Amino acid sequence: MTPRILFVHNGRERFVLDDLALLSQEHTVTDWHQPGRRFHLGRLMRLVPSHDLVFCWFASWHALAPVLLAKALGRPSVVVVGGYDTANLPDAGYGAQRGGLPRWVARTVIRQATRLIVNSQAAGQEAIANAGADPAKIHVIYHGVHPMPMGPAQRESIALTVGNVWEENLLRKGLLPFVQAAVHLPQVRFVLVGRWCDGSIHRLQRMATPNVTFTGFVSDKELADWYARASVYVQASLHEGFGLSVAEAMTAGCIPVVSRAGALPEVVGKVGGYVDSLQPSRFARSVAEALPAACPERRRLCRERILRCFPMDRRREQLMELVRLVVR
Q1: Residue 278 confidence (pLDDT) above 90
Q2: What is the CB-side half-sphere exposure of residue 151 using CA atoms within 13 A?
Q3: H/E element, 170
Q4: Which of 91, 117, 299, 315 could be bridged to 144 by S-S, CB 3.0 to 4.6 A?
Q5: CATH number where 81 lies
């Protein structure tokens, strides 16, 4: 009999929808989207016992009741962790593990889940160190990456970064140092692609030099065009459970320039450059050093690394294997 999966999530990000689609290829999947804390307890109490597995993206409020119900009813649960739920970054105002009720919720979900999926080795280490996750429960299953169209051999002098603009992301995603570094490279166009979510965009705009462009939200087609035009892709994050935008940019031939936070070294390996300081002049120097390396051969190596290391088929196979293990 085909296993029935209750798929629980609080947002329709691309990587969440990817897993929904992958699991639906071989299983009967019920999509349970719960964006807030409130949930329909009666419906949930009917759904959990009628499914063979509860699969949750992130250990937060939306996963608490489904995982506890699964535990009480003898149903297995799998939770993907490694974002806000396991992070502890007080300086950036980010992470459930800073304390309080969010910490309790995340730890309860992580403790009660049958198995945990992390998208990188770094995310697994963080889950153990910050959230007390049982190492025996953890399965490292890297994201699968949809390859972008390879851009032309000759690129524009563009340094690109992608991230929604809101207060929390200014440091967590490295948006603030990215904009500050632009003053030291006036001949390079710095482009920040991402939705404007609060008033922090005005702070960035006030400090930006004329060579900085803020696009706001763009379509997938427009984003692919930016990937194809840029010479380098910059991700100076303080926390990354994987770094999907970095990987996508690399498939388009961008040379990555990243911090050493979280999983970014696992994604970039030796084909990119690293930012060892967020001090603007030193940050700019790391970007400048990557520009001459943006040759066709280096671009090909970046693309090949992602296609080789993070294919979607591999994630699908590993998800299916885990489902078979826990349902059995």
Answers
A1: no
A2: 29
A3: helix 169-172
A4: 315
A5: 3.40.50.2000
